[in-house]
Design goal:
Helix content is 49%, strand content 14%. It is of the alpha/beta class. Strands 1-2-3-4-5 form a five-stranded mixed sheet, covered by helices on one side. Helix 1 runs antiparallel to helix 2 and helix 2 crosses helix 7.
Length: 241
Amino acid sequence: MGTEKEGQWDQSVADAYSRLECLILEPTTEADLFSRLIRVYLEEEEVRIRQKLKRKSSQRISRVMHERVGEFLSGQLSGLSFQVIDGLLFIKREEQLVGALKCIPDLGSYDTPSWNATLARFAKQYQKRFKLAPEKLLFVICSLAKSLDAAHAKALTGIDVWCGAALTTPAYRDALQTYVSKCVEVMDALPQPVHQVYFLSADIHPNALACQLLRGEKASLPDRWLRPSVGDLIQLLQTKL
């Protein structure tokens, strides 16, 4: 029976990877990166099952995620080198540090009003540990799942919804982008937040999508990407750093 279950699991994993490849209908920059992040979670679930662990390792996910982001950026950019150190991706040009990128899968329990404090904590932590000036820090947030705040949205933009999750529905597509942009504008934790904070999905989390693929459920990549997104990040790295 054990062998039979293992065979079923192996087939589920193979099917998940195959279905992931089929999800990319339009090979955009954002879709490319997001699919790589989904793969990180698929691989981690394989490790969890085979090693009989109770849960995924957030530490390993963070390390591998930063490695994959570095590989992704290397394929998009020439003249830059990337190195992962303690959960941070260091970016160098001709051995000179031009930036350091923190990839955050989601903001977890941090609702939107807390974003500034969250990034301020990271900035202080990396300034102390690596002597990194705040203007050298870049952030990529993969998903806003569960972190949107309806009251804060109304205070900043006048958008009136009954819960934060409603902001991710198609009816509020433009309103959500306006809200996210205004949230970034008021982030005084960073010197130039509009050039330092980047996003991917509003609601779909790469881990949740990986689980859907493994269970054989209907799954699809986000049909929109928040701005500023990784395309803007690549342009920044090409022209300004």
